[in-house]
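Components:
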Amino acid sequence: MRTLPSGQTQLFIGLHLIHEVTTPQAFDMLRQHGWRVAFPERTFGTVDHIVPTESRRRPFVDLIAEEMTAALERNCRDFGIRLWGPEGAGSENQGIVHVIGPELGLTQPGMTIACGDSHTSTHGALGALAFGIGTSQVRDVLASQCLALDPLKVRRIDVNGVLAPGVYAKDVILTIIRRLGVQGGVGFAYEYGGTTVDRMTIEERMTICNMSIEGGARAGYVNPDETTYAFLRGRRFAPAGEAFERAVAWWRSIASDREAAYDDRVALDAASIEPTVTWGINPGQSVGVGERLPDAAGDDSVDEALAFMGFAAGSRIAGTPIDVAFIGSCTNGRLSDLEEAARVVRGHRVAPHVKALVVPGSQSVSREAEARGLDAVFRQAGFEWRGAGCSMCLGMNTDRLEGRQVCASSSNRNFKGRQGSPTGRTLLMSPAMVAAAAIAGEVVDVRTMLEEVTA
Amino acid sequence: MSQSPASISHVTGRGLPLRGDDIDTDRIMPARFLRATSFEGLERHVFEDDRASTPAHPFNDARFAGATFLVVNRNFGCGSSREHAPQGLARAGIRGLIGESFSEIFQGNAAMLGIPCFAADRQAIDRLHTIIEHTPNLTIAARVDTGLITAGPLRITATLPAPLRDGFLSGQWNPTAMLLDRFEEVRAVAERLPYLTGF
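Structure:
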């Protein structure tokens, strides 16, 4: 919009998504100053972080969840913001904020998007520029619809070639982070391309953009293309009729061209990527399922991670027993994720010692999955089928690890204590790999189970 | 309009040495403490789980109680965008961070609270850690304009991103007023955006 006196750019935010955890203080600050929400029609709310995934009956049994939900309901009502709540009118679109934005066609190419959640980078999969922000910035966006932003460098990451069966977008982004490091993206936005990404569905691209932040990059981005336009056509908030054709023409015009100059370039060979599993306490600490853990060799970070996880240097990740299997999150809680996991699960039983749950990313994902009978596949295998929300990705509701439990998880972070128990341990992997681990009771190479499915 | 906050030209006080790379905001402020509609009381929960599992954690060490600076290593504050992390640190008395590098979201959130995150190389940070560990009462002084940090005999040249540095010096580190300053232009931009005008 303009260059601020500070030298930063004042950026107009085309879409502001809000949820119950990072906004109550922002609304309080608005009230203290007597400010209004500048563009309530460009602001949309939902509940995801703390919302129960079992009974949704109000008031919630979890009284703090009830209080935070009620606060968001009051704030949205007072300031004229549309809210998709946990029950009643509008609840049909409730879900994880990064799942429902694209699902409803709110997220569009060329749009600037902000949300008080670091995984806002997800929306870049549709060619939007999307940033996670803190609560004070949420206040600024509510009050002014603008953010003050430093210029970003762009690193182009090309993935070329064909992914082997059993290898997914999750494995691609885990491999990228392993290669470039969890701080490698600081100062950058990551733009993904290459023949592998070109062939990916929007849902797969979302998985990749989602975890850009885990590589330190402030944003993830994929150029809009025919796949993007086809995804958006007919969605509730996408332009319709002739406006859609005009929109496509504009979206085409904003894609970066083949000769675009980048601050850095990296290339990966898709065929070299294996099903990948984290073994440590940040998402860069991962290995292929057939590999061994690193030797400690005096690296403090490796030593700290191995000690926390209770793993021996040089041991194999395959065969690690698990206690909990979690399929869900803004990274991998979409329909295609549940379909891939169900393909592995069908006809099997969850290992007796494993607690397994599926938490669809949105109520819409849940309905679609139920229409295809996926809920029955999971239930018959011994999985719990839950309501939509963030759930055990961050353990803010009552879905939490206990003690030192090991969780095979399709989420995005394996930080110490991330899944709600200070000593709980997380192994990040694709939803299909989580499904395989749930059945085997330990980390296994999903490709061996997929061979069974095909045979 | 908000009152323009005060200029921040320097930070002075004792330090708290916290070694380790990639310390994420889940560790600084575990998610269960985000279960509230205000930031009040967060100072009690800073690094709560790390402190419980590591009795020798610097935040448990009485010698560093009341510190003004938190001295860290690489990629501090990575992960979740929760402002609860810098809010907790600020409420625990931290007014400045010195480290090798910071996650951008954390650094931006801290700046909104008037907390500069000074960056210096690994060797300088190691020296600073060591000197604080030996002399917890040492007064550290950091200048925002030049990035010069002094701690007893130690002199370190640190950096702040120029826009944040200038914001601290001019008193515009909280940009709300600046963003609202010419709101009519925001409306004008909105009226030009294809996705707001039906393409």
